[in-house]
Amino acid sequence: MEVKKKFRNSSTPDFFSKEMLITKKSLNEHQLKFTYQKQLISDLDFKHKEWSKSIDSKF
Predict the structure, then answer these.
(1) What is the Cα–Cα distance from 39 to 36, expressed in whole angstroms?
(2) Where does 1-59 have alpha helices with state H?
(3) Per-residue pLDDT reduced to its tens digit, 16-32
């Protein structure tokens, strides 16, 4: 109980929103989507660099 009292008396703001709850499952799904999208962008960037090298070598 003392820990809770110290926390309540602290002047630091909450790091979470009291109006919105996100389930752990939802958070994990969003993280997987983000990781997948990041990988797609990385792959696209690599393909673009390879494509530009092939175009430069032709001219």
Answers:
(1) 5
(2) 2-9, 24-58
(3) 667 777 788 999 999 99
Give the DSSP letter of residue 18: S
Rounded Cα distance between 4 and 13, Å, is: 15
In which residue are the tokens 């996100």 written?
Answer: 22
Q: Answer positive or negative: Cα dihedral of 29, 31, 34, 40.
A: negative
pTM: 0.48
Question: Diameter of the chain by CA atoms?
Answer: 74
R_g of the chain computed on alpha carbons: 23
